[in-house]
Amino acid sequence: MPLFERLFEYKGMLSAFPDILQVQKASMVKVRECKKAEDEQKMDPADVATVAQRGDVVSYSTLAEINQFSKNRVQDFKAMIKDYLTEQIQFYQTITNKLQETLILYND
Q1: How far apart are CA 59 and CA 31, in angstroms?
Q2: What angle do CA 35, 36, 39 make, to 5 degrees?
Q3: Is 2 left (phi over 0), alpha (psi -120 to 50) or beta?
Q4: What's 41's DSSP letter?
Q5: Range 8-23 average pLDDT
Q6: Which of 22, 20, 30 lies closest to 54 in space, CA to CA?
Q7: Which residues, in sequence order, are CB contacts of 66 under 8 Å at separation 6+?
Q8: Contact by Cβ (8 Å): 55, 42
Q9: Beta carbons within 8 Å of 59's beta carbon, 6+ residues apart
Q10: Of all helices (H) and strands (E), which one includes residue 57?
Q11: Which pLDDT score is estimated for 56?
């Protein structure tokens, strides 16, 4: 796959990050609201603990996904640049070979 297409693919993946972070933020807001409701004795402490646990799951899952994405991105970009440079070397070697063949024609 050409470098440009791979970068475009990553652009698409990165465009989803704000939405993912918004979901995580919303879960943290909900936890704070529930803790406030508990302080006002409008919500049972067991329910608040359940909401807090679920909020933690969302946060930890989000962080784990970001961490995994980052690790994969480093590996992918290393491979992309390696492939790109290899293709560039082959391209310019082909040009060099053609120029050398042309030079030989002028030497005869």
Answers
A1: 11
A2: 90
A3: beta
A4: T
A5: 94
A6: 30
A7: 17
A8: no
A9: 24, 27, 28
A10: helix 45-107
A11: 97
d(CA 56, CA 63): 10
What is residue 31's predicted lDDT score, i.e. its pLDDT? 96
For the four alpha carbons of 7, 10, 16 and 20, in that order, the dihedral sign comes to negative
CA–CA separation, 39 vs 85, rounded Å? 61
Residue with tokens 């909020």: 55
Structure tokens that stand for 82 in this block: 């390696």
User: pLDDT of 60-97, one tens digit each?
Assistant: 999 999 999 999 999 999 999 999 999 999 999 999 99
Q: Is 3 exposed, middle or buried (0-12, 13-18, 19+ CB in 10 A)?
A: middle
Q: Which amino acid is at 93?
A: Q
- pLDDT above 90: residue 108: no
